[in-house]
Structures are given as C-alpha cells and as structure tokens.
Design a protein that fits this description.
Elements (H helix, E strand, L loop, with lengths): L1 H5 L6 E3 L8 H7 L19 E7 L8 E7 L5 E6 L5 H14 L7 E7 L2 E6 L5 E2 H4 L5 H18 L3 E2 L6 E2 L2 E2 L7 H8 L7 H11 L7 E4 L8 E4 L2 E5 L6 E3 L3 H10 L3 H10 L5 H16 L6 H19 L9 E3 L9 E3 L10 E3 L16
Parallel strand pairs: 15-17
Antiparallel strand pairs: 1-16, 2-3, 3-4, 4-6, 5-6, 7-12, 8-11, 9-10, 11-14, 12-13
C-alpha cells in the first residue's frame, strides 16, 4: 500500500487538483477529501462496542469512515452513515412497513438520530449467520431451498404496491422524484443520453409495454451478505438501504446483473424471472453499456478505455448506427485529489454529458485504486 501512495505518477500526467504534487500521498495531503470533513468517524462509539462492518474512503489515506455497523453494549445494532450518503429515516420506515405487513423476518427499528456529520439507525440484532459465511457448508438441495424461501419473500414484497416510484437509488444510480412508471423510470436512468433519439426510442418502445404494471416493494440488494441463515433456513433479511417501490421487474434485474459470475445470484435469478420482462433486460443491457461508457476512472487512459469499450456495445444492442459516443464531463474531476490528466490536457474538460458521482463512492475499474 505504501508503494501505491509513494510512487510518483508518470511524467506526462498531473494531478488536476494538486498540480505541484507527484505522489498520491502528497496530493491527498495537499488537496484532502477531508477538507470539509470535521468528523472523520462516528463519535458515537463507546467502549465495549464491536464494529462488524466499516467502509473507509480508499482515497483519504483510509482515515475517513463513510459508514459503520456496530454491535452496541446493549446488544442492538447501530448503523452509522455519513450525512447525505443515504436516508436512514426512509430505511426505518421501510423496516416498519415490512415488519407490519409481511411475515418476512426483518430487524425491528428502534430509533433514528444524528450526531455531528453522521446519521444513525438503531435496530434489533437478528440471530443467524450470513448466507455468504455458511454457503460452503450447504448442500445443493439446501441452497435451492434457501433460494425458494427468498423468492417467496420477494412474492410477499410484491404484494405491497404504490402508484409512484419511491426509492432513492437503483443499482447505485440515484433516482429523482416524480417518476411513476416503467417508461419514466427507464428514461431517467439514461438522462445523460436523452438527446440521442435512437437510444431514447429503443428504451421507450420497450418500457412503455409495462407501464400498466403497478410499482411494487423491492429490496434491491439481495446479496448473500444480507440474508441470515439459522438451521439451514432463512431467519432474516437485512439492509433495506436500496429498497423502495419500483417497477416489478427491478428485483429480478438487480439479481440478473450479477448472476453470470455469482453462484447465489445465479441460483436465485430464475426464481424471480417472468417471461414478460425479457424486453426489459434488453433495456438493462443498454443502460449497462452507457454506464460503462461514462464510468469514471482516475487516470485518462482508463477513462478512454471505458468510453471506447462501453460505446462499442451500444450499436450492437440497438441494432442501429449511433455514431461516435458523446464527450463525457466528470463531476468528480474537480473534487478528487487523485484525479489525473495528461499535462497537455490539464485545463481541458470538454462540453459533453456530465456524469455525477455514484451514490456510494466506489473504486474505479483501473489500477489506480490501491487494492
């Protein structure tokens, strides 16, 4: 890790926000992410508490905590998230909704509070171990039974309906308010490309076929770390941060996106699928290609690769000529201490689509993420 922070970057590159620095450590110190952060980690912690999960910003020399899950001395769970990262009050309401109107085992929410620069949600601690931790000890039949149980829980969730879309995020894309059906939802997800008629027409023609389907409650992140197992049965579903009311195919889409490279999602995906949603997978493939095209990276060669590879898939999906991809302007460019450009292009930013930072800070796809 020291090598990552202390090795000078190539001579033809410059840190845009720390142009006089040559190493990542110098840049992070000169233009720190923490410049407007007073509380680097939750001050709520007291002796005797156990941290069971923690996410630290990887580009802040790992001294800034964005989220933390703790077992308090009284046995309750406290989830602490930096203000603005998510809406814990909304998560509390959704836990209460699921707990009151289904038989799905979710934690009972106790209270929400805030302190300094963090929001906190206190809830009961459910028994069991994560599916991830016990997966290797389960037989094929036991794994299939767990997938059936989770699918049954999803069926219960889908009985909860809403006329409008009510969710903050879907597959890490932040959602705006005022959406009400499949078409408005899909078009909002490609808003950066709304000026390209061939793309909007492709998305609109497929999405509007499902506009008559009412929005349903969706967990949004059925990762095996969010499923608790006891006696080889599901005893808890946790982490409703990504949940909300969305078009009915969204739970399946969120799982299918990872099903090719993840054994749990591969097992769960066919249990959630409906044949009438096939066209929406075509839309999702397009959205994924566009997301790859505009995916940020800290070094210019990787941003260029993202744009080239992402855009190459677009004409194959829409089966039409789309021309060259639009220029991309990255919102993160002016904020990140480690953002690099070629020296000749240091002052050029372009006039293309503006790509905002994803809801949750993520490491880019390239070698400049320190892992």
């Amino acid at each position: 890790m020291d090598k990552f922070w202390d090795t000078p970057i190539p001579d033809d590159l410059v840190f845009v926000n720390a142009p006089n620095c040559r190493t990542r450590r110098e840049a992070s110190t000169s233009y720190p992410l923490s410049s407007t952060i007073n509380e680097k980690q939750p001050l709520h912690n007291q002796g005797g508490e156990t941290i069971i999960y923690e996410h630290r910003d990887p580009f802040s020399l790992s001294d800034i905590v964005d989220r933390q899950v703790t077992i308090q001395r009284n046995g309750l769970i406290r989830k602490s998230v930096r203000s603005g990262k998510c809406d814990l009050e909304a998560e509390k309401r959704r836990l209460e909704l699921i707990g009151g109107r289904t038989t799905i085992p979710v934690p009972q929410a106790v209270q929400c509070s805030s302190s300094g620069e963090f929001e906190h949600l206190v809830m009961e601690r459910l028994p069991g171990k994560t599916l991830e931790s016990v997966w290797g000890h389960l037989s094929t039949k036991e794994r299939e039974s767990i997938a059936d149980q989770v699918a049954d829980f999803v069926t219960q969730l889908h009985q909860l309906k809403n006329d409008t879309i009510d969710a903050q995020v879907f597959v890490r894309q932040e959602l705006s308010s005022g959406l009400n059906n499949s078409t408005s939802f899909s078009l909002q997800r490609i808003k950066n490309y709304s000026g390209m008629e061939v793309i909007t027409r492709f998305v609109r023609d497929r999405s509007q076929m499902l506009d008559d389907q009412q929005n349903v409650f969706t967990h949004g992140d059925l990762d095996w770390s969010n499923i608790l197992i006891a006696d080889k049965n599901v005893c808890g579903i946790i982490d409703l941060e990504c949940s909300g009311f969305l078009p009915p195919y969204c739970e399946w889409i969120a799982v299918k996106r990872l099903s090719d490279r993840h054994p749990w999602f591969g097992l769960l995906e066919p249990r959630l699928k409906s044949a009438k949603w096939d066209l929406m997978w075509e839309v999702e493939e397009l959205i994924s290609a566009l997301s790859n095209h505009s995916q940020w990276a800290l070094v210019p060669i990787d941003r260029a690769t993202n744009q080239t590879e992402g855009w190459a898939h677009v004409p194959k999906i829409v089966v039409a000529c789309v021309g060259d991809g639009p220029l991309v302007t990255y919102e993160l460019r002016s904020k990140h201490p480690l953002w690099q450009e070629y020296k000749a292009n240091k002052d050029k930013e372009g006039d293309g689509i503006i790509v905002e930072q994803l809801k949750e800070t993520e490491a880019p796809r390239n070698s400049d993420h320190g892992s």
